[in-house]
Amino acid sequence: MNNIIVTSIDYILNWSRANSLWPLTFATSCCGIEMMQTVASDNDIARFGSEVFRGSPRQADLLICAGTITYKMAPVLIRLYEQMAEPKYVIAMGACTCGGGMFAETSYSVVNGIDKIIPVDIYLPMCPPRPEALLDAIRKLQEKIKKESITQRKEFLEKHKTHFINLHTENGGQNEF
Ligand code: SF4
Fold first, then answer.
1. Is 176 contained in some domain?
2. Can you tell me which atom of ligand 1 is nearest the CA of 102?
3. CA 7 – ligand 1 centroid, Å
4. How close is the Cα of 14 to the center of ligand 1, in Å?
5. Ligand 1 centroid vs 72 CA: distance in angstroms?
């Protein structure tokens, strides 16, 4: 009986979380323009409960990282992520964010994938992803949240701990914060 009650509460909580994801207003380059377009009336992100973009990480539970992250920007991204309310989720939007994109081989200053520094739930690797693709990523995140138990979430976060150390050792240990 207890299991039934706990499972039902989990289901309701997850359903509520999935349908009221509040994104942090955060973009560093061209992918950000597509993210802004997603909020416009043509695409109507409000259908999925995510139209409330917040200016403060303390009021947001979804980080859509839209754009290139440089080593200089990395500590800021980590700080914003850590200031967000739990449970919090991350969509890596764009090839640059997922793996460095066109800068992966050629630039000394770009982090080759934000999953080296924060846990990523959904990868959206295009250049740039269109608003429809971002909406699809949000739908996929919603499905993930609905199925995930608290234990599974803890295991996910444990497995994807932030790795500051990687950031220091990558690039020959030359990265300064
Ligand atoms: S993936 Fe393409 S559009 Fe997005 S930030 Fe990188 S270069 Fe710009």
1. no
2. 7
3. 41
4. 32
5. 18
In CATH, what number is assigned to the domain containing residue 129? 3.40.50.12280
**DSSP code per residue over 30-63:** THHHHHHHHHSTTT-GGGGT----BSSGGG-SEE
Range of the domain at 36: 2-171
Q: Is 41 exposed, middle or buried (0-12, 13-18, 19+ CB in 10 A)?
A: exposed
177 inside domain: no
Residue with tokens 């499905």: 143
Tens-digit pLDDT profile for residues 71-103: 999 999 999 999 998 899 999 999 999 999 999
Nearest CA to ligand 1 atom 5: 67
pTM equals 0.89
Per the domain annotation, does 102 fall within a domain?
yes
Q: Name the domain count of the chain.
A: 1
Considering the domain boundaries, does residue 35 fall inside one? yes
